[in-house]
Write a structure and sequence with these properties.
alpha/beta; Rossmann fold; seven-stranded parallel beta sheet
């Protein structure tokens, strides 16, 4: 039996690196894509240091470029690598910035964030989803957010980050990913390819103490999530025991979106 590979976009980011380690631990070969060369190389070194026999391919690439994605797919086909999992994780992280408290993004900013977070996921699925469809198995997992089903509570950010506004692009992207998830779930269903979305609530990542306190106060479980809260679900969705689950947006938010 040939080794199965998982391809991860935005691999060198916060969640991407955690997903990479977990999939390596579960005996997947990895295909890591990120536009940040230094971070990607550092992740590669760390993974190979931990997992000596890891099958690993890395690509410094812009996933908004169709030609680049097609070349990656061709490269993997020549190496006879079986891609069984696609994790669309790439996004522009909408973090508060100093002296950046406008309500509205510029058109250039808007288009760039949509390109990476939504168009990039569409293009990756167009090429690799079709590849999975032809091989008659595969798992596509889009990384969403609780903001795929609710609107940002701007009051959470205003007092914590100098009147910062969570940009409209973030909500548009995550709601759009849900649409893509459902679309491709039905498009590929006949050939045993599933497409689901994992939508985390707030995951602890060095947020301000004020913001953490506010999020805890509106979360029934009274805490932020941790990356470990996502990993069990990730492994379940890439496992064959989840083959009849498709088109679902699974919220991992401590109950925040149910009240």
């Amino acid at each position: 039996m040939k080794k199965k590979y998982a391809i991860i976009t935005g691999a060198a980011g916060f969640l991407g690196s955690v997903f990479s380690k977990e999939l390596a631990l579960n005996n997947f070969g990895l295909i890591l894509i990120d536009i940040n060369k230094n971070k990607l190389i550092n992740l590669k070194r760390k993974l190979l240091k931990i997992y000596n026999s890891l099958s690993l391919e890395v690509f410094v690439a812009d996933i908004t470029n169709e030609n680049v994605i097609n070349k990656i797919l061709d490269n993997l086909k020549k190496k006879k690598i079986i891609v069984s999992v696609l994790i669309n994780n790439a996004a522009i992280d909408a973090k508060p910035k100093k002296n950046k408290n406008e309500k509205y993004l510029s058109k250039k900013e808007w288009e760039h964030e949509i390109d990476v977070g939504l168009t990039g996921s569409y293009l990756m699925t167009k090429f690799f989803g079709e590849h999975m469809f032809k091989q008659k198995f595969g798992k596509i997992i889009n990384i969403g957010s609780d903001l795929s089903v609710i609107s940002p509570n701007q009051s959470l950010y205003k007092s914590s980050y100098n009147n910062y506004y969570k940009p409209a692009s973030y909500s548009a992207i995550k709601h759009g990913l849900l649409g893509l998830t459902r679309y491709f779930a039905t498009l590929y269903a006949s050939n045993n390819v599933t497409c689901n979305m994992i939508s985390p609530g707030a995951i602890y990542n060095d947020q301000s103490n004020i913001l953490i306190k506010k999020i805890k106060s509106i979360t029934p479980m009274g805490r932020l999530g941790s990356v470990e809260d996502l990993l069990g679900l990730l492994i379940f969705l890439v496992n064959e025991r989840s083959n009849f689950i498709t088109g679902q947006n699974i919220l991992v938010d401590g109950g925040r979106t149910v009240i």
